[in-house]
UniProtKB/TrEMBL annotation:
Gene3D superfamilies: Nucleic acid-binding proteins, P-loop containing nucleotide triphosphate hydrolases. The lineage of its organism: Bacteria, Bacillati, Actinomycetota, Actinomycetes, Micromonosporales. Keywords: ATP-binding, DNA damage, DNA repair, DNA-binding, Helicase, Hydrolase, Nucleotide-binding. One of its GO terms (molecular function) is helicase activity. InterPro entries: DEAD/DEAH_box_helicase_dom, Helicase_ATP-bd, Helicase_C-like, NA-bd_OB-fold, P-loop_NTPase, RecG/Mfd, RecG_dom3_C, RecG_wedge. Residues 283-456 form the Helicase ATP-binding domain. It comes from Micromonospora gifhornensis. Residues 479-654 form the Helicase C-terminal domain. This is Probable DNA 3'-5' helicase RecG. Signal peptide: none annotated.
């Protein structure tokens, strides 16, 4: 499996496979699985192809036509191919190529690869690469080497590149399968038998050269199992190790800060908040570190649950730190907690409560004197609750006795950052991770498998419903005009509004809120905050007080803008997704998301949660130029149709590549986690987890299973393991 490909397929082909597909060894190629399988006579749905997409289609030549070119000398060959469904595609070849006309005879089947373009409403491939499939009736090509790749009924179509089409990959795979011995099967025989799984060597051969649909299913099931099992073993082992490490117990203390806080809360906790609070309180009282994920819809009251946990730790003589992803959110948590705690946060001041502590904010923008004072409070232990951004991780921020780390919006932080905060404690602190992004059950089991999970699904009393509508700006420009008039009505009624754009403007590569570059189908650049704000101020929102907020503003300026908006000094906030998480302005009742199709499903749900946080109903308008029937429009219609975050999370998962969930896209490296679908393979993942738990309980370090340990390390390498821990 470690044999370099140049020894097997030749230097030129190996160089192309390495340069275009990052495939270097026999093992890399064998684990480069087909994307799909075509069958002669079955259609590949040409009508569904997107312009600009690099595709490989299985199709039959229907007719050819040669005509002179208008602009230059020579002829143009047009070949019309079909897929059996009524969809057709035109292949165009420039120059005098009479031999192609003889080769591409009507009735011949072939694989055609190229980029889809549109010419006068017709789908085209210009100068595509192709390979014709053997036809026993014509007697001319059935025995050639190229055709051997497709001798079976099922034709594998691989993730390919223009320079390395699918049939070249198929030829190379055949060479490897015929030359290299299959790897040792690392799966324990007992697991293989009890779960009715085929051997690894047979599975690898059948997935590339399937003898039947049934054998292909069995091969894919075995290889999916390997992926699920590797991930679950990684997570179960981590959970096992964490449970074995010591931590200082932080039990609840009757008559302390927490009881005083509960007594002064101006509202009643929901049943969900009480139940989750009891789970966390029990975890904190144990002598092993808590590792718990608290997920809940936007506005479900996670912050109060976290604050109660922090107060329990302070009652037990420890300190609690909350790590927030942005200064805006850290400052908002700080103000919110001071309001909730009142005299309970005023230790050492006149009028402080009997069991009071202090709350400190540590951010990168603190002045030198304020920073020295805050750090002294943290180091002495006077500050029981410490809130901050990445600045909490820096050298020089020392805790007297760090007992609990709360991580807000877990996906914004890397494992090394979380570890840096953990390292500031004498013993491993308890860890509570919070997210407002609802997580489907299989994702929770797979990505957060080393954490206990609590869910808040109930919204506190008094929260208002949010109505959402799609505004089709290209088809019905009058609807957009009406949207701006509607926003003015909200402001006239004493409320405020957000306008969200996908880009900051004056682009600099790598800025965190920047949208991707313009795609090659010619779509205009995404709308930008710095360009939209003045246009609104001079046009449809003329006379309203408009503020601008984005990630590139200096921290003090961001905070000032947020304070102005929260204080009612601004009517409209034009912002990027910097407002996506945690921003809480109850008087903001309306949001207009421009270029809404440029945002993901979960992101739109998060953004929408910024309105309807008070007693007045919320309104979210999703403005788009995506036309009816497109996948982008369908996604927006789905977001507008429900406020159930868990339903939307399932939709989000359906529409994203599975590899993104398991870290392939984020790491920028090829992943061996290829086949597992977190939606469709829920039962298999559950079974793999059960087997992983049994195995780890018997053999925590897998010392009796060295081949399995090596296989897990290959499938879930260091980068992938880090991504799984980041969540």
């Amino acid at each position: 499996m470690d044999t370099p490909l140049k020894k097997l397929v030749g230097e030129k082909t190996a160089k192309a496979l390495a340069g275009h597909l990052d495939l270097h060894t026999a093992g890399d190629l064998i684990y480069h699985f087909p994307r799909r399988y075509d069958e002669r006579g079955e259609h590949t749905d040409i009508k569904a192809l997107d312009v600009g997409e690099q595709v490989t289609v299985l199709a039959q030549v229907q007719r050819t036509a040669v005509r002179p070119m208008r602009q230059r000398r020579g002829n143009l060959l047009e070949v019309t191919v079909g897929d059996g469904s009524g969809g057709t595609l035109t292949l165009t070849f420039f120059g005098n190529q009479a031999w192609r006309e003889r080769e591409l005879r009507p009735g011949r089947w072939g694989l055609f690869a190229g980029k889809v373009t549109d010419f006068r409403g017709k789908r085209q491939l210009n100068g595509p690469e192709y390979v014709l499939l053997g036809d026993q009736t014509d007697g001319e090509a059935a025995a050639t080497e190229q055709i051997e790749e497709f001798a079976g009924a099922l034709i594998p179509v691989y993730p390919a590149a223009a320079a390395v089409p699918t049939w070249v990959i198929a030829r190379c795979v055949r060479v490897v399968l015929d030359t290299v011995a299959p790897p040792e099967d690392p799966l324990p025989a007992g697991v293989r038998a009890s779960r009715n799984l085929v051997g690894l060597g047979g599975a690898l051969r059948e997935i590339h050269r399937p003898s039947s649909r049934e054998e292909l299913y069995r091969a894919r099931r075995r290889l999916k199992w390997d992926e699920a099992f590797a991930v679950q073993l990684t997570l179960v082992r981590r959970k096992h190790q964490a449970a074995a490490s010591p931590a200082r117990a932080r039990p609840a203390r009757p008559g302390g800060l927490l009881d005083a806080f509960d007594a002064r809360l101006p509202y009643e906790l929901t049943g969900g908040q009480r139940d989750v609070g009891a789970e966390i309180a029990a975890d904190l009282a144990r002598e092993h570190p808590m590792h718990r994920l608290l997920q809940g819809e936007v506005g479900s009251g996670k912050t109060v649950v976290a604050l109660r946990a922090m107060l329990q730790v302070v009652d037990a003589g420890g300190q609690a730190a909350l790590l927030a992803p942005t200064e805006v959110l850290a400052a908002q948590h700080y103000r919110g907690m001071l309001d909730l705690l009142g005299p309970l946060a005023q230790a050492g001041e006149l009028g402080a409560a009997e069991h009071a502590t202090r709350v400190e904010l540590v951010t990168g923008s603190l002045g030198a004197a304020a920073r020295r004072r805050a750090l002294a409070e943290v180091a002495s232990g006077a500050a029981g609750i410490v809130l901050g951004t990445h600045a909490l991780l820096y050298e020089g921020v020392d805790f007297a006795d760090l007992g609990l780390v709360v991580v807000d919006e877990q996906h914004r932080f890397g494992v090394e950052q979380r570890d840096a905060l953990r390292a500031k404690a004498e013993k491993p602190p308890h860890v509570l991770v919070m997210t407002a992004t609802p997580i489907p059950r299989t994702v929770a089991m797979t990505v957060y498998g080393d954490l206990e999970i609590s869910t808040l699904s109930q919204l506190p009393r008094g929260r208002s419903p949010i109505a959402s509508h799609v505004v089709p700006a290209a088809e019905k420009p009058a609807f957009l005009d009406r949207a701006w008039r509607r926003l003015r009505e909200e402001v006239a009624n004493g409320h405020q509004a957000y306008v969200v754009c996908p880009r900051i403007g004056d682009s600099t590569a790598g800025a965190e809120e920047e949208a991707p570059a313009v795609d090659d189908t010619g779509r205009r650049p995404p709308l930008a905050v710095t360009e939209v704000a003045p246009l609104l101020a001079e046009g449809p929102l003329h006379g309203l007080r408009i503020g601008v907020l984005h990630g590139r503003l200096p921290a003090d300026e961001k905070d000032a803008v947020m304070r102005s908006f929260a204080g009612g000094e601004l009517d409209v906030l034009v912002a990027t997704t910097v407002v996506e998480v945690g921003v809480d302005v109850p008087n903001a009742t309306m949001m207009v998301v421009l270029d809404a199709d440029r945002f993901g499903v979960s992101q739109l749900h998060q953004l929408r949660g910024r309105v309807g946080r008070g007693s007045a109903p919320g309104l979210c308008l999703l403005v788009t130029e995506a036309t009816e029937g497109t996948s982008a429009r369908e996604r927006l219609d789905a977001v507008a149709s429900t406020t159930d975050g868990f339903k939307l999370a399932e939709l989000d998962l359906e529409q994203r590549r599975e590899g993104d969930v398991l870290g392939a896209a984020q790491s920028g490296r090829r992943s061996h986690l290829r086949l597992l679908s977190l939606l469709r393979d829920a039962d298999l993942i559950r079974d793999a987890r059960a087997e992983a738990i049994t195995l780890v309980e018997e053999d925590p370090e897998l010392t009796r299973q060295p081949a399995l340990a090596a296989s897990v390390a290959a499938l879930v390498d260091a980068d992938r393991a880090e991504y799984l821990e980041k969540g």
